[in-house]
Amino acid sequence: MGALLVKKTKKTKVLFISYEYTFGTFSGNGVLAASTVRGFLNDDSSDFDDDDDAMTTEILVVCARPTELEEELRMEKEDEEEDKGVLSVPVPKSKWGRLDKTCAHEEFATNVSEKQLEAIVKFRADVVLGVDWSSLEVCERIRKRYQEEEEDGFSPPPPPLTYLNYRVFTLHDESHRALEQRMITASTHVICLCINDAKFLRDAFVGGDDGKEMVVAVVLHPPLREDVLRNAKNALAREQPSLVTSTTGAKKKRNALTCVVRLSKEKEPERFVELVEELAKRDAFGDTLVPILVAPATSEFAEGLKKRFREATKNIPNASELCIESFLNATQLGEIYSRTKLNVHPCRKDAYGMTVIEAAAFGAPSLVCSGGKVGSSELLMENQGVFSFDYENKSVEALADFITNIDENRLEEVAKIGRERALAYDETEYARLISKGMMIPKERGVETIRELAESYANALIAFSLDYESRESVTIMTRSRGKDDDGDDVNIISSSSAKTIELEGWIITADNPHSMNTGIGANAIAKKALEHELLDAFPRVQLGRSLTSEYDSDDPDEMKWIECGYFVPFIGYKTEESKMSVEQRVLEIGRNFGQNAVYFISRTSGEKAFKVTVVPCCANMDALRSTVEMVPRKIPSIRRQVVLDY
């Protein structure tokens, strides 16, 4: 709900700690870490509207650097980097290239020099952003130094830690559970990449110093990195105003079937190789379909897959060019994506899958596993940037059938939608959302919770039973004893003789965790919410809903508006089944970062509605309230705004 926004100060100092950054980048973690820092540095507070949280950010990065630990080299690098806002910590090169518990996380902490610790404390950060559990021991060492100086009376308390969860390691390896639990316990906020990760963190871990709080993670999808976004926009500009060649006038055809994931077992690239083998048996490759495997990895597993791919494609013209073993920069990747008809993302689950978004930015839709376990499919949903296929239960023969029978016009339609969405979100916007996410108070004070509760209870609520209808919209506000016709409005009777005329829940995905996330992000979240609700309640016809601030003294003023859905309760027989529906609605609300949902009901013969604010999380129970609301004849201007939403 957007009723309460926590304002940032004019200038924020951020200490950013990431094991992988720009030295020997080997995974998406390093790419996203660099994107995040660039987003903060490129942010210009002049871009904010007057009502937004104007701010500037100064950032100091602490990261690991693979080296042979030569003392002179280390000191030289320290002196060189301090002025650039980067403090690199030497770690053994023999342990580089890994992010799990076998990486050099211990050396990353112990090798922070005294000079670097002094620089960090002197920086006086307002907040620490720690990437994954591997940053924890560095954070703990910095916190200890703060405490030592605090005891001597020279330093303020250590800054709060926000956990940037780029990957949930416990999902694939239970031995990381204790490490990730320690990171959660040490953090005031958790920000992750997708709803599936947020669900897992909530269900598998506990928060709070006493270990009794629910872990509530803010979900922020990662952005396209700066160079990819720039190249994708340039590619789009070159394709305008038409996709025709200067010589033939024929439309340029994409023909590449690509796979651009890392050749490691968790990415399941063997599924793409098996698909290529099956399509080769069918003699499906030619001018209209050419397989391309981007495969710079050199492990035994990767080499085995590349050998199989080469064997399957040996009869295709220019076969030697189809398995690309060199590391591709952003420009070279863009050239591949611009040729791509369909990008195959072969794994059944993925924390995000940035290559899906990158491909979409260049007009190439992706094929992902159905079931919503690939994080990027929350941004690019089925038929709106991606196609989905049941990798879990269907054969490679069925997959080959899908590829060969896909409609060309449908490919273009899905690609167009995906491109628009991928290009609408950049590093600067991502950094701004992190800024807002890390300013959410973990321990909400009494005054804060009271203000938020008042906002819920006193909002204007509009809803309809039919999403498409603009005629049957009910607009209501809290009862003050009289309705607009001057009639008395009595307290709704709880008598069992009364018949329930209407009941259901109002839920939104807008402005998660009280952040003002903007129209574009809210629109994407709303579509994802619709998908989730229809999946959870296939028998239900969703209605539309809108909530906004309402002041009877100034009814045309609308400081915040949030759109969502009305989920009707459609005649389940028992109270237990109603509770199970409510629990599912609350779970969806939590997954979309909502503090609470509304439950509304009206009995036959009554004019007023009974409206209950139902908190999504136990630690927000103070939001709960039940009020009466009555239909209102609000000013025509305000009413038109409501109907247009």
Which short descriptors sum up this protein?
alpha/beta; 8-stranded antiparallel β-barrel; 7-stranded parallel β-sheet; 21 strands; disordered N terminus
Could you explain how this protein is built, in words?
α1 crosses α15 (427-437), α8 packs across α11 (330-339) and α9 (270-281) packs parallel to α10 (300-313). This protein is α/β, with parallel strands linked by helices. The protein is globular, with a radius of gyration of 27 Å. Residues 1-9, 45-53, 243-249, 441-446 and 486-497 have low confidence and may be disordered. An 8-stranded antiparallel β-barrel has the order 14-15-21-20-19-16-18-17. β6 (189-192), α7 (195-204) and β7 form a beta-alpha-beta unit. Helices cover 36% and strands 19% of the residues.
Q: What do the pLDDT scores average to?
A: 83
Strand content: 15-25%
Number of strands: 21
Taking pLDDT < 50 over at least 5 consecutive residues as the criterion, the unreliable ranges are 1-9, 45-53, 243-249, 441-446, 486-497
Rg (CA only): 27 Å
* Structure class: alpha/beta
Q: Strand order, main sheet: write it out.
A: 14-15-21-20-19-16-18-17
End-to-end distance, in Å? 16 Å
- Helix count, DSSP H or I runs of 4 or more residues: 19
Major pleated sheet:
8 strands, antiparallel, barrel
Helix fraction by DSSP (H/I, runs of at least 4): 25-40%
Global morphology: globular
